[in-house]
Amino acid sequence: MSRHDPAAEAVVDLDAYAHNLSVLGEAARGARMMAVLKADAYGHGLVECARTARANSVSWLGVTTIAEALELREVADEGRILCWLYPPGADFASAVEHDIDLAASSAAQLGEIVAAAAGRRARVHLKVDTGMSRNGALGADWSHLVTAAATAQRKGAIEVVGVWSHLACADEPTHPSVAAQEQVFREAVVELASAGIEPELRHLANSAATLTRPSAHFDLVRVGIASYGLTPAPNVASSSEYGLRPAMTLRARLAHVKRVPAGSGVSYGHTHVTSADTTLGLVPVGYGDGVLRALSNRASVWCAGDRRPIVGRVCMDQFMIDLGDTEIEVGEPVTLFGAGAEGDPTAQDWADAADTISYEVVTRIGGRIERRHLGARA
């Protein structure tokens, strides 16, 4: 970073993103791939990642909301897009008009989609709850949804493109729920077939199942966190062990440097007190920019060739790091987290320190932090 760079930026390596898609494609050979781009591509940039995915032959994009799907259509993405979460009264009409695939988790929701389509043929993926107890139809409700879908399809109101579900514990491959959910999913597919519905796509696998459970690949895998280079199963293997490259590096520059004596309290509440004379550096980002407050006194950053601990509480706009006796000037670059290749902390390191998951670390980065995209697709 130069003197003219912003105070903080998230640098996204689109070549790393493309590499990760290739690794995941090899793992799921024989199945199509959906690149999951919800929440601004997990904080990496919706449009930029969508274009990179399409350039790397990814046939499906997945988002949560209709608004996200419409944003992709506005930038001329004409490929297949699925969105899956919305409140009653959502703008299904616009989704159908723009040829966006919709998920239906109940007969009532399917009825809303059909009514909003107003004579157009809606493309629908039926979601079955196989044991996560979140979205999707369960038990008798699934049977009602199947019956309603069969009727609507016979009338030409919908095309049932897919049947899908979501695994609760795929990051723990030996957890008994994984096999149990897969079996329930297979039974749901059989029930669909008995009703005369044989969808083009059966999809169950998320990132973790894509890498660890070939039997769950079916026709399509949905890759999210792993596509951004972060391990979906940290207790099984690291990103590098899976061959993944973290795509985001969060950088800043020191805004202030000062020498303080032993016994100095640092930041709110004096939760850290210096044990010796030391130098403190101020990093000008905080929880207002998505840096987790839970990292206070628990994580580190990379500065001047070494890891430097975060000391004291993370504030809304800033936090402090202990530089020891190293002579460092204002403006020195700081890597908050990155690919880890040079010893810098990774998003997974920060997640471990904050007792959370890497998904939260990268998706929270926002506020005043600028994004810069690198690579062939930038």
Description:
With 378 residues, the chain is of the alpha/beta class. The protein has two domains: 31-228, Alanine racemase (TIM Barrel), CATH 3.20.20.10; 248-374, Lyase, Ornithine Decarboxylase, Chain A, domain 1 (Beta Barrel). The chain has twelve helices and 19 strands. It has helices at residues 14-27, 38-42, 46-55, 66-74, 92-97, 107-117, 140-154, 176-194, 207-212, 239-242, 347-354, 358-363; strands at residues 8-13, 32-36, 60-63, 80-83, 101-104, 122-127, 158-164, 201-203, 220-223, 248-253, 256-260, 265-266, 272-273, 278-283, 300-303, 306-311, 319-324, 333-337, 370-374. The strands form three sheets. The protein has a nine-stranded mixed beta sheet with strand order 11-14-17-16-15-18-10-1-19. Strand 7, helix 8 (176-194) and strand 8 (201-203) form a beta-alpha-beta unit. Helix 1 (14-27) packs across helix 3 (46-55) and helix 6 runs parallel beside helix 7. The model has no long low-confidence stretch (mean pLDDT 97).
